[in-house]
Amino acid sequence: MSRTFGAIIIGDEILSGKRQDKHFAKIAEMLGARGLRLSWVEYLGDDRQHLTETFKRTMAAGDVVFSCGGIGNTPDDHTRQAVAAALGVALELHPEGFEELKVRFADEEITEQRKQLVTFPAGVQIVPNPFNRIPGFMANDHYFVPGFPQMAHPMIEWALDTFYKAEFKPVAETVEKAFLLTGPTAYESALLDLMERIVADYPTLRLFSLPSLVGKERKHLELGVEGAPALVDKAMEEIRVEVEKRGITWVWRQ
To answer: How many CB atoms sit inside 10 A of residue 244's CB?
Structure first.
């Protein structure tokens, strides 16, 4: 069975709108390039208790999770402590992480504050950081990386290519096709029975429907499927026949 991949993006500055999230789209892109897809994403503030509860839940679910942000040593960084609480372990100076720190800084520059950068929950492994050698860490298929995209994204790629190659799928085996439907009955609730039938008959495909509005008026409904090319073509033909029976106008989405 394929693994489920999720992302957690942490920071009050994201939720307040002071900074734009640059992780969601990139993580989805990196997974897509390997024939995988991002199943969910959560945005969380700098709240240690909420982070702890979230990590307990996602670790219990068995998903592969990429968590971006909050692993620094400032008072608003809570990820390391929250993960330790979720795992029920203490924080400790990580020996491999400390070796990376010594590569990054001269001996006289390694302060107690900088040691906190590699003080991680006991028993975890490090995630190497090619940008500045200050690592992240991993536990239970969760990968904790900095909030800086230029650090986080190569670290996530390393995790994917190191641990999940067996999950990769040829990208060419997956296609996505859709119709733009218009007319008085071209809305989701009127087509629910058709969508349910396609989902039941083609369980390996991903069906999607995206309504488009102009003001308060419906413009069109984008209805399509994603998956193996032959099955996609067959499902789209069934959809075409059915919507024509119902007097709905369709064009291919470009």
So the answer is: 11
